[in-house]
Amino acid sequence: MSGKEMVQAGRADEVNINGTCNVLDACHEHGVRRLVYVSTYNVVFGGKPIVNGNEALPYFPIEDHVDAYGRSKSVAEQLVLKSNGRPAKHDRSTRLYTCAIRPAAIYGPGEERHLPRILRLAKLGLAFFRIGGPDVKTDWVYIDNLVLALILASMGLLDDIPDRKGIPVAAGQAYFICDGSPCNTFEFIISPIFQSLGYSVPRVTLDTSAALAISRIFLFISTLFYPWLDSKWMPQPLILPAEVYKVGVTHYFSFLKARNELGYVPMVSPREGLAATISYWQEQKRRELDGPTIFTWLAVTIGMLAIFSAACLPPVGPLKWVLDIHLFVFRSLLVIRLVFAAAVAAHIGEAVYAWFLAKKVDPRNAAGWFWQTFALGFFSLQYLLKRVRG
After folding, report:
1. Measured between alpha carbons, how far is 371 from 342 in angstroms, rounded to an integer?
2. Looking at the whole model, is its pTM more than 0.85?
């Protein structure tokens, strides 16, 4: 539902549609009585603003979805709700009751789809922009609140409720679930987490239309590499159209129906949920290898390759220009070679020092610190020294 997986339409359909059909068939085969389907806001949202929406909204047209995830989840939810009341295969008196929970963007300790990808971009220095103005508001739901909603929905599918004539209150129904506090994504969760982890807060603001244009370029590139999207060497796209809509267009909903019919009331406030999330990621960062941005990597790598080519390679073609520039700075080939040897020796010495230091303060990542410092020298070592002081 985020990143390059959004481009894999066949995989999304196989999991979300065919997988849901398998679950429904298994329920029919084995006489299962209750099925709570975890759906998404995207079944009714496709890029057009929605303010305090409710369950009376129609499904967003299937053909207009900008990503396979939203389209496949919409089809799957409709299959689940249409299966409500279906009798079991071997016992016609046993019926399957179904409902759908439509959660907002989920956050909390252990969440693996939204924040990890955003934080990886922040670590590389690529999450330097925000999309849309501060007036854009969306919903989030803390994981404990979502779990509470799932439990209440399951209870709402019991068929022994008085005065309901055997029909559960939640049967065939869909419910929006959120924390009930619409907010700007960047102000609520992105900026506070970035600040707590020492990453730069996004300073550049992109208009939603400009972000959409950029995202379509990344979508096109990802589509060109479709057969290799599962490969580890294939990087994640910076941003995709559906993600632009999710953070750059106002859309939030009321959980009034869930409160009235299921008794759902968020038990964890956004402030408490954010504090727990920040604490989790601070602990995660202490366990991981930290380092400079991609721009530092590029600068050091290009710099070392340039001085290596000037010192050791014959001046052929473009390398002659590289040598001329170095001769202008260092005046002689001998000095260039001495500078290169000194740089290599410094990198090796710093890498060995980083390895011994990491053995004391971060033993699980000692090898990583060695190789990163070997490549970047002090630009890597300073992060390890900061961890020692901290």
Report:
1. 18
2. yes
Distance, in Å, from the CA atom of 7 to the CA atom of 56, rounded to the nearest integer, reads 30
Phi, psi dihedrals of residue 251, rounded to the nearest 5°: -160, 115
- Catalogue the active-site residues: 69
Using the structure block, give the residue that is written with the tokens 């990198």.
347
Residue pLDDT, tens place only, 148-171: 999 999 999 997 666 666 789 999
- For residue 201, the 8-state DSSP code is P
Task: Kindly list the structural domains of the chain, giving each domain's residue range(s) and its CATH number in brackets, ordered by start.
Answer: 3-287 (3.40.50.720), 294-389 (no CATH)
Residues whose CB is less than 8 angstroms from the CB of residue 299 and which lie 6 or more positions away in sequence, other chains included: none
Alpha carbon distances (Å) from 305 to 323, 329, 343: 12, 16, 11
Q: DSSP character for 129?
A: E
Packing angle of the helix pair 333-361, 318-330 (nearest 10 deg): 90
pLDDT, mean over the chain: 94
Residue 38 burial (C-beta neighbours within 10 Å; 0-12, 13-18, 19+): middle
What is the C-alpha radius of gyration for the chain, rounded to an integer number of angstroms?
A: 27
Dist. CA 288–CA 308, nearest whole Å: 31
Can you tell me the distance from the alpha carbon of 78 to that of 84, in angstroms, rounded to the nearest whole number?
10
Amino acid (one-letter) located at 145:
N
Handedness of CA 44, 49, 52, 57 (dihedral sign): negative
